[in-house]
Amino acid sequence: MKIYTRTGDEGKTGVIGGRIHKDDIRVEAYGTVDEVNAFIGEAIVRMDPKVHQDIITDLTEIQHELFDAGGDLAQAGKKRQYKVTAEMVTRLEQLIDRYDAECPPIQRFILPGGSAVSAALHVCRVLTRRAERRVVTLSREQETNDEVRRYLNRLSDFFFTIARTANVRAGVSDVEYKRSGQVFR
């Protein structure tokens, strides 16, 4: 099988249900989800399996779930059985709570960074927020799986939490935004 098909040379791509322009909001939404997935791979290769094996395992599962989310988003108005479910959102909430227990309480906003792993996870967080915005735009125009939007919302919180966890495990403090008042109580 050849990797190139030439079917996209005219600026269109295939989705479940037909062909659409490559700059369609649907393609933008699932393409941004794909960007998140790629950056998760980047974050994983920065991790020491002796320190981060639990995070690597969870992120690998999330990579599979993001492929599911992309598939759900690629359905061009065709009502099919979706793969992203409310149970997946609940599982993310449980992971957030588990990793947050490792972190000291925060009172102010924090700056992205600290350790290299944390910085990479913050990139995943902001890309996930962008993907969520693209899905919100798509959902106003076309039918989508609402659980994908909720999943992405929770996923960005997950990345924030594990970025902080990575700093804790590296023995690096989060850097507080100094111009912020106390926003978390």
TrEMBL record:
It catalyses: 2 cob(II)yrinate a,c diamide + reduced [electron-transfer flavoprotein] + 2 ATP = 2 adenosylcob(III)yrinate a,c-diamide + 2 triphosphate + oxidized [electron-transfer flavoprotein] + 3 H(+); 2 cob(II)alamin + reduced [electron-transfer flavoprotein] + 2 ATP = 2 adenosylcob(III)alamin + 2 triphosphate + oxidized [electron-transfer flavoprotein] + 3 H(+). GO terms for biological process: cobalamin biosynthetic process. Pathway: Cofactor biosynthesis; adenosylcobalamin biosynthesis; adenosylcobalamin from cob(II)yrinate a,c-diamide: step 2/7. Residues 3-166 form the Cobalamin adenosyltransferase-like domain. GO terms for molecular function: ATP binding; corrinoid adenosyltransferase activity. Its EC number is 2.5.1.17. Signal peptide: none annotated. The keyword ATP-binding applies. It comes from the Bacteria. InterPro entries: CblAdoTrfase-like (IPR016030), CblAdoTrfase-like_sf (IPR036451), PduO-typ (IPR029499). Coiled coil: none annotated. Keywords: ATP-binding, Cobalamin biosynthesis, Nucleotide-binding, Transferase. Homotrimer. Belongs to the Cob(I)alamin adenosyltransferase family. This is Corrinoid adenosyltransferase. It comes from Paenactinomyces guangxiensis.
